[in-house]
Amino acid sequence: MKLVARPRRPGADKMELDISSQLAKLERKNTMYSFTNQFMSNDKNAEFLKATMMGPNAMRLAEELASHLNINENMRILDLGCGCGLSTLLLAKKYGAFVFAADLWISPTENYERFESIGIDDKAVPIFADATKGLPFANGYFDLLFTVDAYHYFGDTAEMLPSLIPFVKKGGHIAVAIPGLKYEFGENVPGEMQPFWNSEMERTLHSLDWWKDLWKKAEGIEMVDSREMGCCRQAWKEWQTGYHPIVAEDIKMMEAEGGKYFNLIQLIAKVI
């Protein structure tokens, strides 16, 4: 009996490529957030996270941002606007880096006690700092300036980025992850967002293009990455499980937003 090969269906090769591509994306996503996912799988850790989040899950943002950098245990990192230290925890635990955890709103003593409780007090130095009034560090002191869910509060002027560049070594990086908008609202704030919109949001929330244009004005750096982050929906969803007093209002805001207007923005520049 003669065996005859069955003809392949039209488009079968493309379908296989599409499936392979989807599987590759899924694998990258699982790997990208491996530390955060494992951390949150423990009930005690999940409670810790709920008690310390101050916005979209900073640990998840930090892990995605860090995945685009070559971080190692020999690096000295400034975690600027560290909040309660979720990004610091990620940098110290996952990468073994030495982190200066600087914040304006959370006291160094509170963060020191928290770092002791989670076993990173030998890797993290809590510091009080106001970036708008200058930082207490030597020039060229850091391999990386890393800031998650904070830079939009103080970095919305043309003067801020140039003031930070000197603290990073030549060849080092400045990496930022912040909440943003899919497009500039200007005077046309969508009706469903108007009950929540205020002067601080107007000042701090901007589009990816707005931030890119601002950073292009700075000398002494070259942009190496700028994009909308993949963890936006998940990070906001996790924030809505937190215990911070503004969560209840943000739940209403995110229901009204419905995935139409907000994003998370990633910016990475190399110091040259």
Count of domain modules: 1
Radius of gyration: 21 Å
Order of helices and strands: HHHHEHEHEEHHEHHEHHE
CATH architecture: 3-Layer(aba) Sandwich
How is the main sheet built? 7 strands, mixed
CATH superfamily: Vaccinia Virus protein VP39
Count of helices?
12
The largest beta-sheet arranges its strands as 3-2-1-4-5-7-6
The gross shape turns out to be globular
Strand content: 15-25%
Helix fraction, binned, reads: 40-55%
Provide a descriptive summary of the structure in words:
With 272 residues, this protein is of the alpha/beta class. The chain has helices at 12-32, 34-40, 43-52, 58-66, 86-95, 108-117, 151-154, 160-164, 199-204, 208-216, 232-239, 247-257, and strands spanning 76-80, 98-103, 124-128, 142-148, 168-181, 221-228, 262-271. Helix 4 (58-66) crosses helix 5. The chain is globular.
Write out key terms for the chains shown:
Rossmann fold, 7 strands, alpha/beta, 272 residues, seven-stranded mixed β-sheet
Layout of helices and strands:
Layout: H1 12-32, H2 34-40, H3 43-52, H4 58-66, E1 76-80, H5 86-95, E2 98-103, H6 108-117, E3 124-128, E4 142-148, H7 151-154, H8 160-164, E5 168-181, H9 199-204, H10 208-216, E6 221-228, H11 232-239, H12 247-257, E7 262-271
Parallel strand pairs: 1-2, 1-4, 2-3, 4-5
Antiparallel strand pairs: 5-7, 6-7
Helix pairs in contact: 4-5
How would you summarize this macromolecular structure in one to three sentences?
The chain is an alpha/beta fold.
